[in-house]
Amino acid sequence: MMLHTERSTRGSVRAFVRYGDLLQDWTVPVFGVGQRFDLDAVKSASANDIRAVHQFIDPNLRRVQLTWDDVQVPRRLREIAQESWVALDRLADDDGDVAATHERLDELRAAYAELYDESAAIAESAALAARREALAKVAPPQTASDGGRADKVPHKVRALVPPSVRRGLRKAAGRSR
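User: That's the sequence. What structure does it adopt?
Assistant: Structure tokens below.
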């Protein structure tokens, strides 16, 4: 998601802030963003405004504490995700939102798309095999000779089909009259 979000905002006026930096001391990155975008709300914040934010932000607010060892993902997906994290983190550096970083992010997005397409093809193949297996276990449909569907069609309707077509259909179905 972040690789695609980064690409869709590229060329826009934007800023990146590390979550850890916000938790450590939110005033530094927020002041930097306020200066960069000339935000009056940030530049004119009162002591009471700042105090209210201090009371709201919990430095221990780390919702996800998992590591790669805590989740089971394919090795290649882990590599792409880890490399993406490093490249996206670079965007928060003063000199990070540059062509070289963008090029690396494009490579990672392409690698992820390729892995995703391969995974989808494998999943589709497995689903088709499971469907074929399930269909093989189901009784075959009845033929007309043993009370099949053709006998349930009223004669008047069947008579509307030209005789040569009916013969061809019977022959294709492997039935005699």
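The radius of gyration is 32 Å.
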